[in-house]
TrEMBL record:
Importin N-terminal domain location: 21-101
Top-level division of the source organism's lineage: Eukaryota
GO biological processes: protein import into nucleus
Keyword field contains Nucleotidyltransferase: no
Family of this protein: Belongs to the importin beta family. Importin beta-1 subfamily.
Entry's Gene Ontology cellular component terms: cytoplasm
Stored Pfam families: HEAT_EZ, IBN_N, TPR_IMB1
Organism placement in taxonomy: Eukaryota, Metazoa, Ecdysozoa, Arthropoda, Chelicerata
Protein name, entry field: Importin N-terminal domain-containing protein
Amino acid sequence: MDIHQVLEKTLSQDQNELKQALELLEQFSQTNLPEFLKTLSNVLSNQEANGYVRMAAGLQLKNQLTSKDEAVRQRLQQQWLGLPEDVRSTIKINTLNSLGTETGRPSASSQCIAYIAAIELPHNLWSNLIKLLTEHATRKENDEQIKVANLEAIGYICQEVPPELLISESNQILTAIVNNMGKAEPSTNVRLTATNALLNSLEFTKANFDTEQERHYIMQVVCEATQCPDIRVQVASLQCLVKIMSLYYVYMEQYMTAALFAITLQAIKSDQPEIALQGIEFWSNVCDEEIELSIEASEAAEQGRPPSRTSKFYAKGALGYLVPLLLKMLTNQDEDADEDEWNPCKAASVCLILLSTCVEDDIIPCVMPFITENIRKDDWHLREAAMMSFGSILEGPSTHVLVPIVEQALLTVINLMHDPSVIVRDTTTWVLSKICEQVSDVVLKPDTLKPVLDVLIEALKSEPRVAVNACWALNSLSEAANDFACNAEGVIENPRTNVLSAYFEVIVANLLQCTDRPDAVMSNLRSSAYEALMEMIKNSPQDNYAIVRQTTIIILERLNRLLSVESHGADQNITDLQSLLCSTLQSVLRKMTPEDAPKISDSIMNATISMLDYSSKANNLNEDALLVAGALSEILRKGFVNYFAAFQRYLLLGLVSYQNSQLCSVSIGVVADLCHALGEEMTPFCNDIMMTLMEVLSNNLVPRKIKTEVLSVFGDIALAIGGNFKQYLEAVLQTLLQATNVTFNRSCYEMVEYVNDLWESTLHAYTGIVQALKGDAEVPHPDVQLLQQHVVYINQFLLKVAEQHCEIPDNLISAAAGLIGDLISVFGAAMLPLIEQNAVQLMFARGKKSKFSKTRTVSIWVMREIKKVKSAGQPQPQASLFANQLHGTAAAESCSISIFKKQIAT
C-alpha cells in the first residue's frame, strides 16, 4: 500500500482501517527507521500532496521525536541522535522547506522543527536554525504564510528548548518577534503569531529586560498590542504582561503608573470574557509576587539581612480601584455554566483570595460593606456574590480580626444553608468549610458546634456539588478537633477524646452513606466523601476506637464484594472505587491496635493478593494493593513475614515497571515500609530485591527520579538487616560514589532540584549503611571498619554539599550533619580534617539558625560531638590520611551489575 494511502487511513473514522494503518506504519518504522522518517518528511514537504495527508505525515514524524512520557521521550531523543547525519539533514531540510506551504493549522512542520531543535541544540547541533528562522520571519518580501510559519516555529522552539540554551540567540529572536508585533505590521495573523512567540520567549530575555532602552521598546510594543482591534492579539499581549509581571516585577514600577494599571483595569471591565480573564490574572500574579516578597522579607529579617528584592505594594495601592471591579464581577454568575468551566467570575474570586492573603487586614473594609448590603437581597446572584466574597477574604486577615466578624456572621451562614438556590447553598457550604479551616475555634465552641454539624450532615444528602463542600468542612473540623484535644491533653497524637467524639459515629455513618449515593460519581463526591472519612479516622481519639474497628470491617467487606465482580477491570468507576477503598483501608489500618490487626490480616492479604494477581495478568499492577500491604506491615511488624513469600513476586514486578514511574516509586516506598517493619527478618528476601534494584539503576529507560529513590532505599535495607548488608556493601558504595560525582549547572532549576534529591538520597543511604555496620552497642562493631577506605570519598561528598550550604534546602543540611555525626561516633578525631573545613563550619552555623527544629537539633548535636572529640586528645592515625586524600582523589571505577551478581551469589 502506498504511504499516502496509509497516512490517509490514519485519519479514518473506521477503527479497523485506523488500526490497520497504524500497524503498517509501525512495521515500516521497525523495518527501516531512517527511510521511514525520510519518507514522512518527503510527504510533509510535498506541496502537491493532499493537505490532510501532509498533516498526518507531520503527526507521525512528530510521534517519532517526542512523547508525553519522559522515559519514551528520552528513548526517542537517543533514537534521533543515532540516525546517520545525512538522514537527519534531509529531514531537517524537508521540514524547513515545508514552512509556509501547509494549508492546515497548527503547522506540523513548525512543531517538528521545534522537537528536533529540542534534541539537537543541547548537543550543539543545528546551530544555524535560529538564524534561518529569524531571517525568513523578517524578510519583507516574504508573504504572510511564510512569516507566520517561521514565527510559529520560533515560538514552539522557545516552548520546547531549555531557556538557558537560547540566551545567546535572544537578540535575534526578540528582533524577529518584536518587529512583527508592532502596529505597523498589516497582517493580524503575523502580529498574533509574533505575540504568542514573545510569550514563549520571555524566560530567556532577562539580558534584554536588564537593558533599559530594550526594555522600554519591548514594553511599548506589548502595551500597544493590547489596544489592537483583534481580540486574539489583545488576549495574547495581555498574557505577555501577566508573564512579564511574574518574571520582571523589579522593573515594572515606571510602567505600572504609565500604562499597566490603566490597561489591566480596562481589560477587567471588558465584556469579552477572555480579555477580562487576563486583566484579572495580571493582578492575581501581582499578588502572587508580593506574597512571595513578603515571605522573603520575613526570612531576611529573621536572618538579620536586607532582602534581595522588595515589594512595591502594588496590590495594596490598587485595592480601592480593583476590589469594586472584582466584586461586580462576582455578580455575573451563569446558572447554567459548567462547574469546571473557568470564567471571569471564578477568576475574580481567586484574585480576591490572593488579594486578601497579600494585604491581610486591609481587605476587610473594602469588602464587608458589599457583604452587608447584599447578603439578604432577593436576587440570588447578589446573595451568592456576598457569600463568595466573604469566603474569599477568610485566608488573609489576622485571627483576632476575623473571629468577631465570623462570630457575628455564623448564624446567617447557617441559615443560608437552607437557601432555595442550589448555587447559594453550594457557595455557603464552601464558606462554612473555609470557616472550619481558618477560624475553627469559633465552630468548636459548644453552642455553635451542634448547629454547624447538623447542617453539614444534612448537606451530605444534598446535591453533589453541595455535599462535596460539606465533606471538606468535616475534613477541616476533624483536624482542628484533634489539634485542640492534643494541646489540651499535652500529647502529640491519639488523645483520649475530643469535641467530636459524641458525633463521631453519626458523621462516619453519614459519610459511608454518602459514598454509596447513586450520584456519587458527580462532582467527585465519592472521592471527597472517602477522603473525609479517612481524615475522620486519622484524627479519631481513643474513645472512638470501637467505631474505627467496625469501619475497618465495613471497608473490607466492600472491597471483597467489589472483587467478586468479574468485570471490575473493564469499568473505570469500579477501578476508581477500588482505589478509594484501598486508600481508606490504609487509613483505618493505621489506627488499628497490634492486638486487633492479626484478626483481620488474613482477609486483608487475601484481598490484596487477589487484586495484585488480577492486575498483574492485565500488565497493570495495582499500586493501591501494594500500599495496603505496606500499611499492614507497619502494624503487624515482624508478623508480616508470614505473607512475604506470596507477596514478594508482585513487589518485584512493581520494581521493574519502568513504563509506570508512579508504580515503580510506590514499590520502592513499600520496600522501605517492609524494612522498617521486619528488620532483620528481611534478610532472606534481600538478594532478589537488591538484584532488582541494581537492575533498575542500570536501565536507561528508568527516570532519574526513580533512581534517586532506589539509592535512598539502600539505606533502609541496610538499617533493617544490619551487618548482613556486608555482602552488598562494595557494589552499593561504588554506586553511591557515582552519584556523588554527578556534575550540574546551578542555573538550571530542574537540574538543581534533581541533584538536591540525589544528594539527599545518597546521604540517607550512607547514613543507613554507617549505622547498620556500627550496630547499636556503645562500642562500634568491627564491621564498620569496612568503610574506612571509602570514608575519604564520603568526606569529599560531604565537603561538596557543605560548599553549597547557601543554596541547598534545610533537609540536606540536616542529613549531611547527621551523617557527619555518625562518622564521628565511629572514626572520632580522624574526621577533624573535614570538620575544620570552613564550608563545613558555615554549614553547621546555618543549621543552628534554621527555622526547622530538626535541622537545629541535629546541627547542635553534631557540634557537641565535635567538642567531645576535640577535648579527647590528639587525632587518630588515620586523620592525616583522610586529610591528605580529602581533595583530588580520582573517582573510583563504576559499579557493574556482573560484580554485584557475583557478590550476592557467594
